[in-house]
From TrEMBL, chains A, B:
Name of the protein this chain belongs to: MarR family transcriptional regulator
Species of provenance: Mesorhizobium tamadayense
Domain of life (superkingdom): Bacteria
Keywords on record: DNA-binding, Transcription, Transcription regulation
Pfam families, sorted: MarR_2 (PF12802)
Every HTH marR-type domain range: 10-146
TM ranges: none
Keyword Transcription on entry: yes
Gene Ontology biological process: response to stress
Molecular function in Gene Ontology: DNA binding; DNA-binding transcription factor activity
Stored InterPro entries: HTH_MarR-typ, MarR/SlyA-like, Tscrpt_reg_MarR-type_CS, WH-like_DNA-bd_sf, WH_DNA-bd_sf
Length: 151, 151
DNA sequence: ATTCGATAGATGCAATTGCATCAAGCTTGA
DNA sequence: TCAAGCTTGATGCAATTGCATCTATCGAAT
């Protein structure tokens, strides 16, 4: 690997990104906890499953959507199932796999988390930047994504 | 709390921020691990201590600088001390406290981490945005910080 | 059909984190 | 000066994460 030092602007932007994202996550997690709600990761999974509809999702599909490690998804799903928020169905054409589907209780929990999470997002981000600034921010971040989004 | 739903632009920017920051951290941690180097949190602490110079820092000062919980800092410092990267000195005017100072070995480790970390930053961020874009990004993120930076 | 490698998901064990609480020392105020 | 409360830092214990590995099934090549 070529030894390279990033420019001062790069370092500054990187530092801000690291600090801000951690602050935002931490505050949001705190708010959820204070409200007696489960952590963000639960929301992410319930959200993906709600979007997937009745067909549900295979665990391995969930893995890249929510950016969690395989064993993390496996155990998170076990907890969600134990709480009755998702159900696991055998899948006909692959004996190894399963399909995970959100239950009505899961949808309700997702809704309750969103009431708090959405307010937190509005509070921490929506109130601080204009619509145009938000779009600029999203576009710049999209270029850092993998795969990049060049809009 | 007033029930509020964030605007679509807000949600989009939030989603990108969450995803991108996690991707960047994960890739960087992977790179460090592959290089046989300690995790990012070690760098953060060593960096702050290096900047603090010979005077060192009190653990509680480190807490807000690196955004770690008190018990996390306590244990991380114990590990750094065990590795000889920092040293703890009693502080004269407060019998409870201590001053933590980076050692030469700590400076060397910091340098070695930076060689890889800096390259990762350049790779993941510096190469993808222009200087002007980086400044825009940093400014927008600064407004989300707590306390906000209005430049 | 049988073997071999790849994929899906689970899990034992060690390390780390989070929570609650502790001990020790400081500060304030009667 | 002494009690009450605050601050600093550490730690026991439970929950979570990370790593490595396991089992089961699939698919492809022979």
């Amino acid at each position: 690997m070529t030894k390279r030092s990033p420019s001062p602007e790069t370092i500054k932007a990187w530092g801000r990104l690291m600090r801000v994202s951690r602050q935002l996550v931490e505050k949001t997690e705190d708010t959820l906890k204070t409200s007696g709600l489960p952590p963000l990761a639960w929301y992410d999974v319930l959200h993906e499953l709600a979007e997937a509809g009745e067909g549900g999702l295979r665990p391995f599909e969930l893995i890249d959507r929510v950016l969690l490690a395989q064993y993390n998804v496996s155990r998170l799903l076990a907890r969600l199932e134990a709480d009755g928020l998702v159900e696991k169905l055998p899948v006909s054409d692959d004996g190894r796999g399963q399909t995970v589907r959100i239950t009505p209780a899961g949808r309700e929990t997702r809704r309750r988390i969103w009431a708090v999470y959405g307010a937190s997002i509005a509070d921490l981000m929506g109130d601080r930047l204009s619509a145009k600034e938000l779009e600029t921010l999203a576009a710049l971040l999209g270029r850092l994504r993998d795969p990049p989004i060049l809009e």
